[in-house]
Each structure stands twice: as C-alpha cells, then as structure tokens.
Amino acid sequence: MRSKLFIAFLSVALVATSCGNKKTGLTDGPTGTSDEIELKLNLTKGKMYDMQMVMASNVDMNMMGQSVTTATNMEMGMDYEVKDVLPSGNYLVRSTYKSVKVTGSTTMGGKDSGMSYEYDSKTDKATGFQAQEMAKSMKKMIGQYTEMEMDKFGKIIKTTMSNGLNNEKGSGMDNMNYAVFPDKKIKVGDTWDSEVEQNMNGTLAIIKTKYTLVSVIDGIAEVSMDGTLEIKPGSEGRISGTQKGTSKIEVATGMNTEIVLDQDIDMEMNDMGMKMPMKLKNKITITTK
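Above: the chain sequence. Below: its structure as tokens.
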C-alpha cells in the first residue's frame, strides 16, 4: 500500500516540478502573431483559491512472473490562501489539504483479483483492506498545510510545512498552481525551458520541460508543456518518461486556472527489498477557482 501512495504522489510531484522552478533560455517565435504579454505573479493578500485535482492512473508491473495492473482514480482538494505580500515583493502562500478520495482495483494475469478499494476523507468511509491502510496516512494530511515564499516569476524561494506534514509525504500539489515565467515579455509562438532536479524516494531525477505560448484569448494564456524525465547520472535506481499537456494561465494574476497533463513513466521501485519494474500512464486534470 505504501508503494501505491508513493506512485500516486510521485506522479503529482512531477506536475508540480514541471510547473515551477528554475527557468532557462527563451526562444523567439514568429513575429506579428499577437501582442506581447508579460506573465508574472500578481497576487492579492487575503485572496483564497479552491483547487481540485483528478488523476486517472494505470500501473503495469510484473510480480514473480505474473502481470499485475492497478487502476486508480484520485480526487484531491486544497485551499490556497495568499497570506502576505512581503516587502521584497515576494508572495507568501499557504496551501491546505482539505479532502481526498481514492478508488482502485487490481487485475492479475488479466483477471480480476477481487482487490478493489475506496477511501473518502469527507465521509471517512474506507472499503477494502488497502483503503483502510491508506486511510491511516491520508487522514493525517487533512488540515495540514505548506507555506511557500515565491518571487514574481513563480520561483519557490522557501518552503515550510506544518508539524503534521513533517513526517508525511506531501502530494506535490502545493506548488503546482504556479508556473515559472520568462523574465521578458513574450508573444504567441515563443518558447522557454526549465530543468529541475527532483529527489524521488532517494532517486535523483532530472525533469526538463519546454513551454510554448500557444494563444492569448480573453485574458487567458494557453501554454503547452512538453517534458522529459531521466535519472541523474550517478544516481541509483531507474526512472524515465515523458509528460505533455497544456496550462491555462490568468494573465492578470499569473495563476493557473487549468492544467491537463498526460504522463508516461517507466521506473523500477524497491519495495521492502524487492525490485519491481513498472510502467505508469496517468491523466491529470487540475482546476483552480
């Protein structure tokens, strides 16, 4: 069960990483396609946002020579509050976990294993042994928060967690509502890149993402994301993959209003001394209001 939680949180953490961190070069697109815009955070102290994430995940692995497929659907909700605008111009934002619902089932050798489960924090209902084990960890997250200091380009300067999260793995959703922006005005067709190092359960991975400004309509900028994932040279473990999708960003505030992402990940996980190669396919949708 701990492996199922890690896989789910890993997938979301990759979204968060691709949406925010160190930026690199900017490439000009075709001229005359649209007016130039400046993407940056412009948040208001006291403003509260509601974020909902839905993730449909399929994990294929081989255990003792038998194929095992797990299908999981996760829904998670968080509150985002702009706690302060600091004298430096940076923003202090608190994200609080408020709900989680998970359903899943497993097939072995192409046949239903009878191992289905469901957990809903709103009702505290846990059906199936796996859900009961999952509830022990997920219950601890509800009401806990992460605070982040970010600059106007979306770069995270500092992160602190409430006591209840210090010993728990966060979902990675905390910073996925922010994209790192180029430090100059852009127009439709322009691209920029990011390269981020992420620690994934002891395995160091490099996530590279290329962003393209696709359109600007009614104050909403649509940005495409095309990313790759590979293990850092010298790091133990095995992980590689791709993630592609789109993000809709409110130009006035720099907030993501919607992210849709498809992930294909190939990895090997060590669970209690047993190496398990697996393939993940995820569809993630995040909306913010």
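The first helix runs from residue 2 to 19.
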